[in-house]
Write a structure and sequence with these properties.
TIM Barrel; 8-stranded parallel sheet
Length: 310
């Protein structure tokens, strides 16, 4: 069985929890006005999150990726005097209760600028700060370690062995709140499925298989042969994977608006023995998910778990 989810933004609802501001805008304001602006944005994001989660539950969508900007500028010095966790403790509690009671799996994908394997200490520290912010949000929501933070290995493709060693070394610098949630995804330009898998096995952390990325970057490996090892990295947790379709043969790495049904059927046929959560990374977001469901129904495929895992 599998469950489907989408990333961050619903195209079928007007309220999304990704409202934000800029440092330039805040710097035009006096300190108290800055705090007021930040509070207003986070309050709006909480309102929109609850609205969106209700929509997801109504449509039997129990896997969702929270936007990284949920707490506006949480890691920036411009907000360093704002104790958002304390001020919004009630909101985190109530949102967490809704999420847990409906068995929703929340995940996050910290930004591409959070590069843990960098050889620059300042960049590594920025990554640790960013990861810690995401982990704190999930901790405040009271979520278990199925709410993972997805990252890529990072840079250093000119010396992959050294780049992987740096990731492993810097992983040890992470606080436990991050270590228990961090998972690694293979990417489409630098580190293959096998390289990401071996790193995860080395560190004892889960690997997220992105099947589109694997088709973009591989050395001829059949991903199905590695599936048992990938699943094993998750231990007692529910494995999570990513699925997208290429925009075109010419622009193969780019994501299409929707999922190609035939590709998806081929993908899930190899996942039949497992319970897996799949985030669909499409331009049409939740609409692509609902469209795919209709296409699967036409084909007589009913292996999606429409009930939550509460």
């Amino acid at each position: 069985m599998f469950r489907l989810g989408y990333a961050c933004i619903s195209v079928n609802t007007k309220n999304n929890p990704n409202k934000k501001t800029t440092v330039a805008q805040l710097n035009k304001l006096e300190p108290q006005a800055r705090l007021k602006k930040l509070r207003q944005i986070l309050q709006t994001n909480f309102f929109n999150l609850m609205d969106l989660l209700a929509y997801n539950v109504e449509n039997h969508i129990f896997v969702y990726r929270l936007p990284s900007e949920f707490v506006p500028l949480a890691t920036h010095p411009v907000a360093e005097n704002w104790d958002w966790a304390k001020e919004f403790a009630w909101d985190f509690q109530k949102a967490g209760e809704f999420i847990r009671s409906h068995g929703i799996r929340m995940t996050a994908h910290p930004g591409h600028f959070s590069i843990l394997n960098s050889d620059k200490p300042s960049v590594v520290q920025t990554a640790i700060t960013d990861f810690s912010y995401h982990a704190r949000v999930f901790d405040l929501l009271g979520l278990d370690d199925n709410s993972v933070l997805v990252t890529h290995v990072g840079g250093g493709v000119e010396d992959k062995a050294a780049a992987l060693d740096r990731f492993a070394a810097h992983f040890e610098l992470l606080p436990d709140s991050v270590k228990k949630r961090l998972v690694v995804e293979n990417d489409d330009t630098s580190f293959t499925m096998v390289e990401a898998l071996e790193l995860c096995e080395r560190l004892g952390i889960p690997m997220v298989l992105d099947i589109h990325h694997h088709h973009c970057l591989n050395h001829g490996e059949n991903w199905v042969d590695y599936l048992p090892r990938i699943i094993q990295t998750w231990g007692e947790r529910t494995p999570k994977m990513h699925m997208s379709s290429p925009k075109s043969e010419k622009d193969f790495r780019a994501h299409a608006d929707n999922i190609h049904p035939e590709e998806f059927v081929k993908f899930i046929s190899s996942l039949a023995p497992y319970n897996v959560d799949i985030i669909l990374e499409c331009k049409n977001k939740d609409d692509a998910l609902l469209t795919l469901r209709r296409e699967l129904k036409k084909r007589g495929i009913d292996s999606e778990a429409f009930a939550s895992q509460a």
